[in-house]
Amino acid sequence: MPKSADVQHMFDRIAGRYDLMNRVMTLGIDKRWRAAAVRAAKVDPSTRALDVCCGTGDISFLLAEAGAEHVTGLDFSANMLEQARKRQKNQRDPEGRERVAFVQGDALALPFEDDSFDAITVSFGVRNVEDIPLAFREFARVGRPGARIVCLEITRPKSRVANRFYDVWFDRVVPLLGAVVSRDKAAYTYLPESTKAFPRPPKLAEIIRAAGIREVRWRMFGGGIVALHHGELPMAGAPAQAERPSPSAAVDPATA
Ligand SMILES: C[S@@+](CC[C@H](N)C(=O)[O-])C[C@H]1O[C@@H](n2cnc3c(N)ncnc32)[C@H](O)[C@@H]1O
Known about the structure:
By secondary structure, this protein is of the alpha/beta class.
């Protein structure tokens, strides 16, 4: 797993061109994945949402647009948060702008009380943390009973053809794009390395369940290179039980 300090410095370095690089690297398709993640969070006007590893705020702003009462975006990179706050000033919807607050902090030691949020999202963030199980335990701690937990992340596809494309794209094209667009080849060489070390969807689902999150499902996007996991915390008084459905039962039927 990467060291937190290295990851923090890396995102501080690339913050200024992060959004542009994202759009170029994914050809803009990431917007669709993000919209699906926000739908999976099922926000309503009473939802207090937390967007962990919020970066420049893409998901935080979408959660507010979707009608959440309040959204807290948390990240440990000061420069990523600076970009998020710049974007916040330019948001079209002034109400949405006021309903989002950005906070500097660590996903592994969230600076919030237990039972604070109704929905917790993390998009393209959990791959970078030093201790993935601890991150999900933190989400479970700060989530209220019944809270939705949503995780969007890059993953390795299953099929051989998709894997070949993945290798060429992430090992060769992305570092070159990183050098040109972001002027930081090292950061965009780290990206493929971090995705290869990241648990595949069934394993990630186990990690999420082990944190006490129930009804864990996932669906794949982009030919299998992106996984969207979601689940929820048990309601107060629900019996504590380890939920371990077979992998096929855990796959979202809509995309199986
Ligand atoms: C690839 S970016 C994703 C940003 C945003 N969520 C998105 O979808 O574009 C990963 C972000 O996670 C943040 N991050 C990584 N580890 C973290 C940690 N332990 N605590 C807080 N933020 C972290 C980085 O600073 C970076 O902004």
